[in-house]
Write a structure and sequence with these properties.
2 copies of one chain form a homodimer. Chain A has about 775 residues and is an alpha+beta fold. Among the domains of chain A are: about 375 residues, Creatine Kinase, Chain A, domain 2, CATH 3.30.590; about 70 residues, Dna Ligase, domain 1, CATH 3.30.1490.20. Helix content of chain A is about 40%, strand content about 15%. Chain A is built from 26 helices and 21 strands. In chain A, helix 11 packs antiparallel against helix 12. The two termini of chain A are about 50 Å apart. Chains A and B meet through strand 10, helix 16, helix 17 and helix 19 of A and strand 10, helix 16, helix 17 and helix 19 of B.
């Protein structure tokens, strides 16, 4: 028979060999400020656990389980895991964090540990069985499960290149069975590298004695989360596996098949029986301790090494026998109990494995990144102080206890996840509004797929209900024509005007002569002359005083240089407000004011700017945060000069000094939420305008001289300047002053009204 | 008191003075092939006369009345009038046209003339009264009514510049009353210029004697459509006018106020009484014969002169007294009865009027166009043979009878209006699909407003129901997200793929390395490598045979020069069909084949191309017709060379020779409607794809090797290549071969389902 190695080389599938699907499940206990188990309920903000695909509770109500969807690359998987941590940590109460290591903190009495409050009766009963059998405390051990599936096209091509296996299913099962067997034989190396539970509080064990010294992994040792000794399942063949597993359940050694805590599980079927017909779809590798040095519980480097390790388990010529598997299990146990700073007793075998893996890489992708990854591992194998467990021991010694060590990290990760709430790490290559919307979807358990990242195109799914979203709020709830109306300023104006709203008087002209001949219409008015499609303000002339004929004609000529159509509009003075209208409501009103500082009588303008720029809402990079740093460039200095200042001037106390004329956020302006301060009449007008256009979502810009005086039909208190489709949402969420408005959540609720139904019926079972 | 002239000059409103609103009503009899009155019913295709704003019947069922909306320029008014003629002439049966002169053809017996079959009882009763009073035949005289309104801002500014009138209403009425009085005094000049009814068949008059010779205007003479002699209404003041008119009705001399056939009517109120409070809004000038030399019944030049004439009637210092009005009426009557080739008996007054008008122009806009217009008129005043009536007489003499003369013109205008049915004259600055949609709306009586011509933005209105349309089929019926999905090829493909439709296998890559590494996926397949956003085919490589590695990698590099993302897709062979899906139906399927000619064994390729290019569907200008002329440029000659031909080769009989590889219509390809020939299974698939995207309208491109073999779920007979938003409609309407499909009418019916309800309930009264 051909070896897998041969098949891959013959079919030139070397690169394809590295294609795989990954899925991570990561458990973690909630911990409070003082390092105790958080015994609060799983937050209702996480929606409904009955279907939540990403944020679940494992055994206990306090034990979070974060689940990534199956993804095509390690980078994506790691991104998702990071994002889920951001969502959870930002949603938890301020005094709660996630315990970053596998072994728990000092636990309360068993009676104070709540089993997860699930709706499904069977899930609750199962947890009761576990409690009886293992005790509550052991169930609190947390870890990472790594789901691994080879590319389906690859499997197909390899299958086609051989003749021994006559069905794709049997071929695929052979591959995965080989992987599983060899994994069990060699997994001691992962225990050595990734073991990260050197110690636990003495109160943890009620019936067993504590290890006397630091070890590599309590969790992976016999102290850990293992089946009772009667449990014995064969990996010889699929048939043996199914039969022996079913036998264990029949004998009552296991309450259910899923109670079998092997380091590898066969996945993709509803039960073992089905493996006989459907075969194995993918593997779940379960032997990983939480890595406290990575906020996600497993580093990207580790994920990559596990991938290479799995590939080598397939690539190698031999397949471990049952006897060898037993030896492998024993080797892992021994490794788990080794002193973290000692050299592995199996170092030689480990180095040989790495050499063979290096060879595999050389014969396939010859990837430098993969070689570097192996080199890292080789260093750790040679120098045990570089392993996670050894590094933990060192830090635990320094801090005085592992509780201190872990709590400090928990707080650090909480802090990192909450300090830039406008960014969702792992998705921060997207626009801010899209990041916020994804955050909300992940929080509520709406499935998210990024269909196109350049286009900010998302697919959101709840059960059978699918919605597509582009740029955060372009959805099926809006009609095709509404944004097209808003995109065309002339059309918008005509429609709003004929519906009786107050728009700036003015007309569109398509010839210079016609525009000049219309001077009589404007000669007593303040006007703006502008190209129909305005770009960066080119070609715009503003006459705050009524123009004289010559100036007007010149302005017309300038504007026509930029466009084939020119608008002449009444100039409106007053303050401009952005009304965000969503689904028949004004969800937010924002006032933007130009970049400014307020004097304290002591600091220079330069210092005041520096202070103001420290606000984390003013990001380091452009367009990555809800506010921008105030610059001190030419324009700002000119603006200061016009007011008699330099950047070294010291403005008197409470004196507001402007550094820009324009109020754009992008040039350092302030955003002020005034939703609750504007008279209802203006909100009603904005809502009616949005209805007139036929839109669900619109950003209506009104100029209002005094928003406390109600607008009346005869005496409009506003002028409507623009109706914007796809209005920005992030700028309302995190404001310089006032209350932030979570508009993305409103979009999500509009798309999925069932989200709100669910919250009110937590009792039902799906 | 200030004169109007002074007001205009003082307020510098000279240019504004030429701003006005125009509306034309034009009557015309339907005539059949043999020059007889068409006694068929008003076509049901014109929708419902109860509300039709544009196409009505006047007195008789055979008497069309075409009505333009109020418009801001003469050019637009003339465009609309032309368009309405196009709509009517294309809708009438093939053997019917519009009689182009005011006096009727030889009429049938009175009993065979149907009074208009209207739903409204009062309208019918009024027509019965007219029949009794004037006889049916006199009611068949047709003419043009010219509605004229000054710019409202102008009136306001002039009002503000004076002190004598204390209400805007009284001021406005003064202006219009002055215009009316002077118009009645001087309208003889218009009778001279525009009189166009020199003769009528002797059967027309039953009780009166015929004029013995050619005259300028029978219609404007005492032979014409005039009130009985008892009718006398004062124009002295508004009050006098209202009182005397009401008096005439009270006395029974008039059956209703609207029976008063003055050359000027005051408009804008529901009855005369209301004039006392609301004042005059605009004037209706009713003294115009149909101009047979213009297909619209009145030329643009005439419209312009009438405008200048009206302005001068306001501008002049004097206002005609009642006595002078009587003189004016007499002068018009005398003029009407003059020999068309004789010099006007009032030539001197006419030349003086023109001189004063010239002066007005000089003092205001100094417009060259206006001066040219006056020069034209001056020529006609000096040389009577240039007048319409004189030119008619000459042609009537040549043809032998006025019936021959008029019938020939009627047929000519019919021909001109029908030979390019894909163009709607007056709106031919718009895209073809938008033209067709406007045509359909005008036909059915849906109100049309072009909100933005660059953007093809229409407002369509029926009663309270408003719909906006951009580019012919972008409407509120479609959702915002559907076109965004279709715009993004990757997203479309992902969505259709995951819904189980057959898309070309392939992936998107964002780095060259990643794309190259994926070579294994494609090395056994025909593939296309292309930049994600394709522009004019740049950067595309097609491998009809599976590529070798080097070529593949080169293709990847070429594609990445054009875009930051590259698609590698399975190459699909077969024929491509465009499925036009609308509202859950496949409305049309089009096959496009490359530019070609079919040999006859005699003609050269060059000659065959010339013949084929004579088809009126292949327009003179690019992109202005449903098909394009086949070129004989470099590309075509190369293509011929590849087949062993030159343009001088003579292909054998029935041999099809292709001149292009691509099947685009824009390069001379043929369009073939195959809607009825494609298996239902493909239509169902296209409909389900459109539903999956969530679209109402989509152009689905399927490649189908054999459309007679049904597509099955397991064995798709198609591959879906693209889903197009805003798919072209005109190319389905007028095809090279097969049945044309009127998709714009389907769009209209989708937007206004009430259009179909109306047709089935012609009996109801609104």
């Amino acid at each position: 028979m051909k070896t897998v190695k041969q098949m891959i080389q013959e079919t030139e599938m070397s690169k394809a060999y590295y294609q795989a699907v990954f899925g991570i499940e990561k458990e973690g206990l909630r911990v409070n400020d003082s390092g105790q188990l958080a015994v609060t309920d799983h937050s209702k903000k996480f929606g409904n656990r009955t279907y939540h695909p990403y944020i679940q509770t494992d055994y206990s109500e306090s034990q979070l389980e974060l689940i990534t969807p199956p993804l095509n690359s390690i980078q994506e998987s790691y991104n998702w895991l990071t994002a889920l941590h951001d969502v959870v940590l930002q949603t938890l109460p301020e005094d709660e964090a996630i315990w970053p290591i596998s072994m728990p903190m000092v636990l309360p009495n068993e009676k104070d540990i709540s089993v997860a409050k699930l709706d499904n009766k069977a899930d609750v009963l199962y947890r009761e069985t576990l409690t009886r059998k293992y005790g509550k405390k052991k169930q609190m051990i947390s870890g990472v499960h790594y789901n691994f599936e080879l590319d389906s096209q690859l499997i197909l091509r390899l299958y086609e290149s051989q003749t021994e296996y006559t069905t794709l299913t049997s071929f695929k099962s052979m591959i995965y069975l080989k992987l599983a067997k060899n994994f069990l034989r060699y997994r001691w190396l992962l225990t050595y590298l990734l073991g990260a539970s050197p110690i636990v509080d003495e109160s943890f064990f009620t019936s067993q004695e504590l290890p006397k010294k630091y070890v590599r992994s309590i969790r992976s040792s016999h102290y850990g989360y293992v089946n009772q000794s009667e449990v014995s399942v064969s990996f010889e063949t699929i048939e043996d596996y199914v039969q022996s597993l079913q036998n264990m359940v029949a004998k009552g050694f296991l309450s259910e098949e899923k109670e079998f805590y092997s380091a590898v599980r066969f996945r993709g079927t509803k039960d073992a029986e089905e493996l006989l017909t459907k075969g194995i779809s993918y593997l779940e590798l379960r032997s990983f301790d939480l890595d406290p040095f990575d906020s996600a519980g497993m580093s990207k480097g580790t994920m990559e090494f596990v991938h290479l390790f799995c590939l080598y388990m397939i690539w190698m010529d031999e397949t471990a026998t049952m006897k060898e598997i037993e030896i492998g299990e024993e080797m892992s146990q021994l490794t788990a109990m080794e002193n973290p700073v000692s050299v592995s007793q199996f170092q030689e075998e480990g180095l040989e494995l790495l050499k063979q893996m290096e060879n595999m890489i050389h014969l396939t992708t010859d990837s430098e990144a993969a070689s570097r990854c192996l080199q890292e591992v080789r260093n750790q194998l040679k120098n045990p102080t570089l392993t996670i467990a050894a590094r933990m021991v060192q830090e635990i010694e320094e801090k005085g206890s592992y509780i201190e060590f872990a709590l400090e990290l928990a707080k650090q990760y909480k802090d990192e996840a909450t300090k830039r709430p406008y960014n969702l790490r792992g998705f921060d290559y997207l626009e801010m509004s899209t990041q916020l919307l994804i955050f909300d979807a992940l929080q509520k358990g709406v499935q998210v797929e990024v269909l196109d990242s350049q286009d900010q195109f998302l697919k959101l799914t709840m059960g059978q209900h699918v919605e597509f979203v582009k740029n955060g709020n372009m959805t099926a709830k809006d009609s095709y024509i509404a944004p097209l109306i808003m995109e065309n300023k002339t059309v918008t104006k005509k429609i709003l005007d004929s519906a009786g709203f107050h728009v700036p008087a003015g007309e569109e002209y398509t010839t210079i002569d016609e525009a000049k001949a219309a001077f009589w219409r404007y000669k007593n008015k303040s006007v703006v002359v502008k190209p129909k499609s305005t770009n960066y303000g080119l070609g715009i002339s503003i006459f705050k005083q009524a123009p004289v004929k010559n100036d007007y004609e010149q302005a017309i000529e300038i504007a026509f240089k930029e466009d084939i159509a020119v608008l002449v509009e009444e100039y409106i003075s007053g303050t401009e407000y952005r009304f965000f209208v969503l689904d028949g409501k004004v969800s937010a009103i924002l006032l933007r004011i130009p970049a400014n500082v307020v004097g304290d009588g002591q600091k220079t303008i330069k210092e005041l700017v520096q202070d103001k720029n420290k606000d984390p809402l003013r990001g380091e990079e452009k367009h990555r945060s809800p506010l921008e740093k105030i610059a001190l460039g030419e324009i700002e200095q000119l603006m200061l000069k016009g007011q008699g200042y330099t950047i070294e001037s010291i403005p008197e106390k409470d004196k507001r000094v402007y550094l820009r004329e324009n109020s754009n956020i992008s040039t350092g302006g302030d955003s002020i939420d005034v939703t609750d301060e504007i008279d209802e009449s203006y909100k009603k007008a904005a809502i009616r305008m949005t209805e007139t256009i036929g839109a669900k979502i619109s950003g209506i810009d009104l100029i209002i001289p005094d928003p406390t005086i109600p607008s009346e039909n005869e005496q409009h208190g506003y002028t409507v300047i623009e109706a914007n489709f796809n209005p920005a949402m992030h700028m309302h969420a995190y404001v310089y002053k006032g209350k932030g408005r979570r508009l993305t959540m409103e979009v999500l609720n509009m798309l999925f009204p069932e989200l709100n139904e669910d919250v009110s019926s937590t009792g039902k079972t799906h």
